[in-house]
Amino acid sequence: MGDLMDSIMSLQTTFQQVSHLAKGPGATKLIALRPLLESSSSELEKKFDQILQILQPSVREKKKRKTLRERLKWPFQKADVEQILQLLERHKSALTFAMNSDQM
């Protein structure tokens, strides 16, 4: 879980940097960054919604889980976490590359 939180925080920092650039005086010159930012934001929002649904089960699902162990169990398998980490890293790298390209 630590790696997942670290990746999310790192991506958040990258998005903040991108947001700062997008609001700056050279925002109109961000040719590579603008479309990538929109597509990344959309894809990541969908993924985070999926993750939240898994982490915050519905009331009906909570009633199904009877034992404390079942309620406290981490809902993701190792492969799921690795897939999420790869997605986050891919978007971070793409945003960083586009940001650097636009600043040249």
Explain how this protein is built:
This protein has 104 residues and is mostly helical. It is built from 5 helices and no strands. It has helices at 2-22, 33-55, 59-64, 68-72, 78-103. Helix 1 (2-22) packs parallel to helix 5 (78-103). The protein starts with a helix and ends with a helix.
Question: Keywords, please?
Answer:
5 helices; 104 residues; mainly alpha; single chain
Question: In summary, what is this structure?
Answer:
By secondary structure, the chain is mostly helical. 78% of the residues lie in helices and 0% in strands.
* Largest pleated sheet: none
Assembly annotation: single chain
Number of strands: 0
Order of helices and strands: HHHHH
The radius of gyration computed from the alpha-carbon positions, rounded to a whole number of angstroms, is 18 Å
Helix content percent band: over 70%
Poorly predicted regions are none
Total helical elements = 5
Shape: elongated
What structural class do the secondary elements suggest?
mainly alpha
**Ends: how far apart?**
37 Å
Strand residues, percent? under 5%
Mean pLDDT: 79
